[in-house]
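From the pipeline queue, job 12 of 40. The input is one protein chain; the requested action is below.

Action: predict structure.
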Amino acid sequence: MRIPSTQLEPHLSKGLARFYLLFGSEALLIEEGSDRIRVAAQANGFSEVIRYSVGIDFEWQELRDQSQTLSLFSRQRLIEIRVPSGRLGEGGTAALLDFLAEPTPDTVLMVLMGRLDKRTQSSRWFKAAETAGVVIDARPVSLQQLPQWIDRRLRAHDILPAREVSDRLAYYVEGNLLAASQEVAKLSLLLGPAAKLDLQTLEAIVADHARFSVFTLVDACLGGDVTRSVRVLGGLRREGTDASLVLWALVREVRSMVTISRHLCEGRSRQTVYRQCGVWSSRSPLVTAALARHRPNFWTGLRARLLLAEQAIKGRTRVVGGPWLELERILLRICGINGLWFKS
């Protein structure tokens, strides 16, 4: 049986299988899935845990020996095997096929892997795992799915978020599930149980973090707020924030604006383009304002100026006033102020 990671908990509530394979590109989902299986195994009397990590010198005979030998400490055990490379080799393939053909009632085997290509997923051992055990696919959470994923996670931590909160957190973490998980855990500690979380509270909590302040900066210049843009940029500089972090946020946003402008010029609907590009409802007025302020070729041309700023930050070229003033000029141009460029 093959299930997405979101279905693991309902599956475990119905009983424990004797074999689990967790794989995929989302390491966080794999780790959380393995934690749930360990808890379920413990609750079902599998109190002993034996762990292996497969390297070039690993002997797969260890699996056979453990699964066939009675434990001195517990009648039932969980054997956990991590395969970082995702390659079993001949020995691993044979050992897994043997276990899947004759699983022992007092042993649960859990195999953890990373991303597996289509060829591996079509292999004999993988098909046997799907037939005789449970395969958990830790699929990536898409940009469109991320706000819902964050919303569920907030509610699981007893936080009641306003609708725009999950959208804003999704924008902040840019698809990084681990970062999203860490922020939710931090919010849970700061807010306490049964807390209501609105956008103003969220921004007040993350305001002192440079990583999130750069997003505030980007939003200010998209909205054409000159005073706020200059103030936030100055604050980041005084706090010792690396200029490359500000540049990274600007490059990220300009790339998105180039894509959005192109799709809109192709005649696609604004709602569809915004959804596909991850422009959530709380940010759509800012993006719309910036698009109305500049022609599409502005965003394309701005990339050359960002490249110049990058070279200045790395010390490979000189610009009038230095890298920080160049970043300020870029921000002000996005705000709609013209005539700021200087020749280097």
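Job complete. The beta strands are 2-4, 19-24, 48-53, 77-83, 107-113, 134-138, 159-161, 195-197.
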